[in-house]
């Protein structure tokens, strides 16, 4: 994409709005249009998770993402793919199933001139080494609790992740138990005018979802071959309240050995 003027960037941002991630573009333009913001989380999502997660992520990656390949599942408009590229990742692939989110992500990539970043329409259940290759690091942000078949979906993701898997997910809170279980819910379709349209346009029909407890996430990640799993506790100030309440959690899993063969 040729360099765009401030006015051209602002026009394209508005055409593609609303966005779920607040990303800074050239000329000080941002992807969020203030009057079109639907939920406060859209203002803070990327910055908060980076402050919360990045130290543990970099530690798991030997101190840097420099030269690493990164897969960003359910990438939405690409905020975390951009952060991985800015942190030095040599190859970044973001996948999603919603065309509008991918259009937003490709616009952001092109505006920032990030040639090492690509975006593709792919569901997590369709991931395989043949389809997308393999990656040093995988981001699984905001999708685990939406999967109708969470073990199958995570098997596919694990099958293309050679070293580090990062999961950020809604959680079911257990005050007096350490049991691993999943709470089932039935969700209605989402429409373009809905408050959560910036994250839920993929929900075109009524679906079943399964929200895990924190022990369920840890046990699943270990079952998939990430033997060392850390539940990242919130230490930064000013994060979304759900992290402090325990209704949202972030987990970093590291393989000790080589990745197993991908499931068929």
What does this structure look like?
The protein has 9 helices and 9 strands. It has helices at residues 6-16, 41-60, 79-86, 99-112, 129-132, 150-158, 197-200, 214-223, 241-245; strands spanning 69-73, 91-96, 117-121, 135-141, 161-170, 182-187, 207-212, 228-232, 248-254. Helix 6 (150-158) links the parallel strand 4 (135-141) and strand 5 (161-170). The chain has a single domain, classed as Vaccinia Virus protein VP39 (Rossmann fold), CATH 3.40.50.150. The N and C termini lie far apart (38 Å). Helix content is 32%, strand content 22%. The model has no long low-confidence stretch (mean pLDDT 94). The longest helix is centred in the first third of the chain and has 20 residues, at 41-60. The radius of gyration is 18 Å and the shape is globular.
């Amino acid at each position: 994409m040729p360099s765009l003027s401030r006015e051209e960037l602002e026009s394209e941002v508005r055409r593609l709005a609303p966005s779920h991630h607040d990303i800074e573009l050239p000329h000080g333009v941002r992807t969020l249009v203030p009057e079109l913001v639907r939920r406060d989380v859209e203002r803070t999502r990327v910055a908060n998770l980076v402050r919360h997660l990045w130290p543990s992520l970099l530690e798991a990656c030997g101190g840097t993402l420099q030269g690493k390949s990164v897969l960003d599942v359910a990438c939405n408009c690409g905020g975390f793919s951009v952060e991985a590229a800015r942190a030095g990742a040599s190859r970044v692939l973001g996948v999603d199933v919603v065309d509008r989110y991918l259009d937003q992500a490709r616009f952001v990539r092109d505006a920032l001139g990030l040639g090492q970043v690509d975006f593709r329409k792919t569901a997590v259940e369709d991931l395989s080494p043949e389809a997308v290759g393999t990656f040093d690091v995988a981001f699984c942000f905001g999708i685990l609790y939406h999967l109708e078949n969470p073990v199958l979906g995570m098997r596919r993701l694990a099958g293309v992740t050679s070293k580090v898997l990062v999961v950020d997910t809604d959680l079911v809170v257990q005050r007096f138990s350490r049991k691993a279980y999943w709470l089932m819910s039935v969700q209605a379709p989402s429409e373009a005018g809905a408050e959560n349209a910036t994250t839920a346009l993929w929900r075109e029909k009524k679906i079943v979802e399964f929200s895990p407890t924190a022990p369920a996430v840890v046990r699943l990640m270990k079952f998939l071959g990430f033997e060392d799993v850390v539940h990242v506790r919130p230490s930064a100030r000013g994060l979304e309240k759900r992290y402090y309440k325990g209704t949202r959690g972030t987990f970093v899993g590291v393989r000790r050995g080589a990745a197993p063969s991908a499931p068929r």
